[in-house]
Structure formats: C-alpha cells, structure tokens
Design brief:
Blueprint (H helix, E strand, L loop, with lengths): L3 E4 L14 E6 L8 E6 L3 E5 L4 E5 L14 E6 L8 E6 L3 E6 L4 E5 L3
Antiparallel strand pairs: 1-2, 3-4, 4-5, 5-6, 7-8, 8-9
Length: about 110
C-alpha cells in the first residue's frame, strides 16, 4: 500500500527529505512506486516491500539504517546489503534493526552493546 507519515521530523524521521514536523498525514513520495507491506519504527523507520526489499530512513547514529555508515537518511533508501534476500518481516529498536529472510535466516545490524 501507500505509506503516509506525520509527527516529528527530527533527523529525517518522516522520510520526506526534510527536518520538518508534519501535523497531517502525507505520502512518503520516495516510496510512492513501492508497494509497502509492513513498517517498523524505533528512532528510525523501516519499510518492507511486497517483493521483500527493505528501505530505511531517519537517524543513523548507531548504524541502524544498514547503509554502512552512521549518517542520517532524510528519505527512504533501499538497504543494498540485503540484496538477494527476500525479507519477510522487519523490526526496529532504538539503534538496531532486524530482518527475517524467507529461508528463516535472521539479519541484524546497528548498535550492538
């Protein structure tokens, strides 16, 4: 389905390309062409597509976005490190993320202490 976001926009948490709060639900334009099947949110957000791809955005200070750095991501970006894995479910903590592949393998990344 179509993904909407609203609320506090600190660190790009709404996925709309801005550090701006939003009082009304608005479409996350970067995912307009993606069929979103599930979402998970901690301090950051994850979206799971109908074809098993995972997108992340928001604060990245613990590496929880999965892009190989600790930078904030203002818009959803596909996690390239999960390429070739059909993900079935995702979970987001404050500074960590988890994904379960269709084969049952569990993937985790982010702050590990």
């Amino acid at each position: 389905g179509t993904l909407y976001s609203w609320g506090g926009g600190r660190a790009g948490g709404l996925g709309r390309g801005k550090y701006q709060d939003q009082q009304q639900p608005m479409v996350v334009e970067a995912l307009r062409q993606v069929v979103v099947r599930a979402v998970a949110a901690g301090r950051h957000s994850l979206a799971l597509s109908n074809v098993g791809e995972v997108y992340s955005w928001g604060p990245g200070m613990g590496g929880q976005l999965g892009h190989g750095d600790t930078e904030d991501q203002l818009e959803p970006l596909r996690i390239a490190g999960l390429g070739g894995v059909r993900v079935c479910t995702v979970a987001a903590g404050q500074e960590q993320s988890l994904a379960v592949g269709s084969d049952g393998a569990v993937y985790g990344w982010g702050y590990g202490r």
